[in-house]
């Protein structure tokens, strides 16, 4: 189906009805209090939920235009809308493949490192989501999602969250590049004899390349995968001393602005 056919067949009302009570075998992802992914046709899925926002759809759409799809595949986005209850719906391409609950294969780790290296060569001009708007990545902690006018604004945001004896961040020499910021086993579809498919672009944006590694330090779960992935990233990306200091500062600022409950 092409885009015109999809928009004609799957109107907003039709999508909402199909997602309301889908057959069990069409539910591809369902977690308590989280978003759901439902297959509504052979080649079409819908991701929907209160936390599904337009930014994610725009990030995914723009990232697909930028990357080499023979290195990393990204599903086509057919449309986004919100219903009267502010539930967001992303209508997108269904990609055949398998999800790994964990990644024990060195070849998989190496492939993902190659993906990160590739997207880190894709430059941006303004920090923040690819499609613009508030930055919601894990590196910004529990703070209200910030918006940045330029890299100086980004630098000032982190420095404002440091305590006096912590070394300030300086991004003057840092390039802004495409970052995914939520690489995890559940966000990679492994296709047979083809490039892996990277999904869930909600956190993505243009940031210093060190943010990709920082995000791995902060995301929960999959400790064995993250330990191996961070080690492989560090070996391949050859972070400079200045970049290593950047990462320490970003992680310190993140820690300083967490909301801890007693």
From TrEMBL:
Taxonomy, superkingdom:
Eukaryota
An example of a Pfam family matching this protein is: APH
SUPFAM superfamilies in alphabetical order:
Protein kinase-like (PK-like)
* Aminoglycoside phosphotransferase domain: residues covered: 33-212
Q: What name has this protein been given in UniProt? A: Aminoglycoside phosphotransferase domain-containing protein
